[in-house]
Design brief:
It contains nine helices and 14 strands. It has 284 residues and is α+β, with helices and mostly antiparallel strands. The chain has three domains: 94 residues, no CATH class; 116 residues, capsid protein of prophage domain (capsid protein of prophage fold, 2-Layer Sandwich); 42 residues, no CATH class. 15% of the residues are buried.
Length: 284
């Protein structure tokens, strides 16, 4: 992992980052931070609560976290804890961990989560019961590999949701259910394509885009298709896809084309919120 170039206000913060970064070669910075905070909390709790079921459960969790690090790496955790204690003893009023969290840019890992929470709020404020988050294929891949997402789902103290990928249709995959500030929404990935007028495949959903939807907001219909037939007369047909057969003698060609006139009939106004360029930090 590349080390971040950060300007520090305090020498103690600079030294903390130097030691902290030694653990980030094999692990993500978010995982190291999350595990350090949990190990420190367990150490403090077990220092005053030395027996009982809660003590044993905390000790068991400590061991599970420790197994993910080498002996040399685990020796670094107490050093980081001592640095925090020393810094707070020297300046009791400071927010040492909060400043380090922001300086290490760890908050950037979860920006997408709070962006979606804001989109959900835009719906619920209008009385729309948000139920699904639909994302483009690249956003789905990002979320599945996001260190913050993985760490939060693995957190035994917070019920953030469940990831269980399942193909629903040829073009839609359900990744599972995520808890967005108490609202549980299904996370759907759209990877369908269509052929444009130039014969090129285009994604049904624009890259880097997210849509939050409410259920039961309308239905899809298909309008009638009117076309010229071989008898020289115009005929109107109802259907999702209406075929038309075209023949030529010179050159001898037989062609079939399909025509559709989809019509969406909403029963609620503005039943969704959407955002674009969510991965490049230029959402709109």
């Amino acid at each position: 992992m590349a080390k971040k170039a950060i300007r520090y206000l305090k020498e103690s913060q600079k030294e903390f980052q130097k030691v902290f970064s030694t653990l980030c070669d094999r692990h993500s910075d978010w995982k190291v931070w999350s595990d350090f905070i949990e190990l420190a909390a367990i150490s403090i709790s077990n220092g005053v609560d030395r027996q009982g079921k809660d003590h044993d459960d905390r000790q068991r969790l400590y061991g599970q976290i420790a197994k993910q690090y080498t002996e040399k790496e685990m020796a670094v955790m107490p050093k980081l804890f001592n640095m925090v204690v020393t810094a707070l003893e020297n300046e009791p009023g400071q927010d040492f961990l909060g400043e380090m969290f922001m300086a290490l840019e760890l908050g950037n890992h979860c920006n997408w989560y709070f962006d979606i929470c804001a989109m959900i709020k835009m719906l619920t404020q209008k009385g729309r019961p948000a139920r699904e988050v639909i994302v483009s294929n690249d956003v789905g891949e990002f979320l599945m590999a996001d260190p913050w997402m993985i760490a939060m789902l693995d957190n035994r103290r917070i019920e953030m949701g469940r990831i269980a990928p399942e193909a629903l249709t040829e073009f839609v995959t359900s990744l599972g259910v995520i808890n967005f500030m108490g609202r549980k929404l299904e996370l759907l990935v759209s990877d369908g394509t269509y052929e444009d007028d130039e014969g090129k495949d285009q994604p049904l959903m624009e890259a880097e885009s997210v849509i939050v939807t409410a259920p039961g907001c309308g239905k899809g219909l298909y309008g009638g298709v009117t076309q010229l037939e071989a008898d020289g007369e115009f005929h109107t047909y109802a259907g999702m896809r209406v075929p038309q057969h075209i023949f030529t003698m010179k050159p001898p060609v037989k062609e079939t084309q399909l025509t559709a006139k989809p019509l969406f009939a909403p029963v609620r106004k503005n039943p969704w919120t959407s955002a674009t360029k969510v991965l490049s930090g230029q959402g709109g």
